[in-house]
Write a structure and sequence with these properties.
The relative contact order is 0.15. The strands form three sheets. This protein has a ten-stranded mixed β-sheet, with helices on both faces. The chain is of the alpha/beta class. It has nine helices and 16 strands.
C-alpha cells in the first residue's frame, strides 16, 4: 500500500484552447476538472494500476469536499484532516502545440494545531503502508522542516519514504534520510547552487544530494528522460522514439507524479523500477490535463535504460539555481 501526504492539495481545472490570446474572450475546445497535488496524483496513478493507496490531505470548504469525492470515485482512500481554510483551485490552459500555461493558487494557511494534526494523522495511518510519499509545496503555517519530521517519523516506523519537494523543505529533509527523492532539473540546480544544463551536470548534482542523505535520487530531465543515482550507481532512461513536443497534453506535474508512482509500484529500486517510472511518466504526458495512466496506456517496451551515459548531452529543459 502506498500512503501519500499532500500538504497543499488542489482542484485542477484544465481548459484546452485553440490559442491563448490575451485580452480576449476565449472559448475552450474542451475542459475537465481533476484532483490535484503531486501526492494526490501519485495516489491516483497507484489506484489506476490497481495498487491500494491512501491519500492523507488537509481539506477545507466546498473544494475540499469535491476533491475527496473525486478521489473516492477513482479508487483512492482519503483520510482528511479538516482545516478552517479553503482548499485551493489551480487553472491550466493547454494549447494544441503542447504549450501549457498554469496558474497555481497559494492555498490556505494552516494553523499550528492543523499542522500537528496532519503529521499525527500520517503516524496513525501508516500501519499497512509499504511506502509513504510526501509530495508538493508546503502551505503557509508549515515550517520548512515539516517534511524532515515526516521522513523521521516514517523511518522510525520502518516504512520507506519518498519525497518530492524543493527549496528549504528538500534541503532540511535530506539529513533525515529519505529513501528516494524526486527532483527535476530546476530543483537539482537550486539544491546545489549552480546551473544544470548537461546530463553530466545532472549526474554530479544528484550524486551530491545522494551524499547528503538521499538513498536514491530519481531526477526528471524533461524530454531527456529520467536519471537514477543511488547505491547501485547511475542509470539513465529515455523513450524510443522520443515523444514529439506537440504530443504532450498532460501537465508536467502530472508526469512527474506518475513517474514517482511507477517507480514505487515497481519496488522503488534499480533499473526495473526506473523503466516503470518512465513508462508511467510518458503515458501521463500523452493524456489530457492531469489524467493518470492505466496499465493499457503504458509502453514499457519503448523505454531504453543505459549505464554508459553521454555526459556532455545538453538537456532540453536545463535547470537554473
Amino acid at each position: 500500500m502506498i500512503l501519500t501526504v499532500t500538504p497543499n492539495p488542489s482542484l485542477d481545472r484544465t481548459y484546452e484552447l485553440p490559442s491563448l490570446d490575451r485580452g480576449r474572450v476565449l472559448r475552450a475546445a474542451g475542459d475537465r476538472i481533476d484532483p490535484g497535488g503531486k501526492g494526490v496524483n501519485v495516489s491516483r496513478a497507484a489506484a489506476a494500476a490497481g495498487v491500494p493507496t491512501t491519500a492523507v490531505l488537509p481539506l477545507g470548504g466546498a473544494p475540499g469536499v469535491l476533491l475527496a469525492e473525486l478521489l473516492g470515485g477513482q479508487g483512492v482512500n482519503v483520510t482528511a484532516v479538516s482545516i478552517a481554510g479553503q482548499t485551493r483551485s489551480n487553472i491550466s490552459l493547454a494549447e494544441p502545440d503542447g504549450t501549457l500555461t498554469k496558474i497555481n493558487a497559494t492555498g490556505p494557511k494552516l494553523t499550528p494545531q492543523e499542522s500537528g494534526l496532519l503529521l499525527d494523522t500520517v503516524r496513525t495511518s501508516r500501519a499497512d503502508a509499504s511506502w509513504i510519499a510526501g509530495c508538493g509545496s508546503l502551505p503557509g503555517g508549515l515550517a520548512p522542516d515539516w517534511y524532515a519530521d515526516l521522513v523521521a517519523a516514517a523511518r522510525t516506523a520502518g516504512v520507506r519514504v519518498a519525497l518530492d519537494a524543493s527549496g528549504p523543505a528538500l534541503r532540511a529533509a535530506l539529513s533525515a534520510g529519505p529513501d528516494v527523492i524526486k527532483p527535476d532539473t530546476s530543483q537539482l540546480a537550486a539544491s546545489v547552487g549552480r546551473p544544470v544544463s548537461t546530463l553530466g551536470e545532472a549526474v554530479r548534482a544528484a550524486q551530491e544530494l545522494h551524499a547528503l542523505g538521499a538513498g536514491a535520487v530519481l531526477a526528471s530531465l524533461g524530454r531527456n528522460g529520467l536519471l537514477l543515482v543511488g547505491e547501485q550507481g547511475v542509470c539513465h532512461a529515455t523513450t524510443e522514439p522520443a515523444e514529439p513536443a506537440g504530443a504532450v497534453r498532460g501537465t508536467a506535474g502530472a508526469g512527474d507524479a506518475a513517474a514517482l508512482a511507477g517507480f514505487l509500484i515497481a519496488g522503488g529500486d534499480g533499473p526495473g523500477a526506473l523503466r516503470s517510472a518512465l513508462a508511467h511518466g510518458a503515458a501521463a504526458g500523452r493524456l489530457p490535463g492531469s489524467v493518470m495512466p492505466a496499465p493499457s496506456d503504458l509502453r514499457p517496451d519503448q523505454v531504453r535504460i543505459a549505464r554508459d551515459l553521454p555526459l556532455d548531452l545538453p538537456l532540453a529543459d536545463p535547470g537554473t539555481p
